[in-house]
TrEMBL record:
Homodimer. Interacts with CIPK. This is Calcineurin B-like protein. Keywords: Calcium, Membrane, Metal-binding, Repeat. GO terms for molecular function: calcium ion binding; kinase binding. It comes from Oryza meridionalis. Belongs to the calcineurin regulatory subunit family. One of its GO terms (cellular component) is membrane. Its main location: membrane. SUPFAM superfamilies: EF-hand. One of its GO terms (biological process) is calcium-mediated signaling. Pfam families: EF-hand_5.
Amino acid sequence: MRILLFCPKRLHLHEMVLALLNESDLFLSEEAVEQIVDQTFKQADLNDDGKIDPDEWKTFASKNPALLKNMTLPCLKDITMVFPSFILNSEVCEEEL
């Protein structure tokens, strides 16, 4: 299994929110989805560069520990079965190369 190294951009987060909503048979307006993305980036993208780098993720997660409850290895192993439209792959942010 390949795991996404956290460095999402706005478009990636938007796609993940839409996939989660779709798999859960929930429907929100495009405006509501954009508000979710906007609020997430407002809180997590501390240097305002349009992506959430690993250090920003650590800071965000430390302030919101409930985010981590679904990120254990057993849960991540099953995520593609629960949410088949999620595509997990390993990517490295350009800054990490």
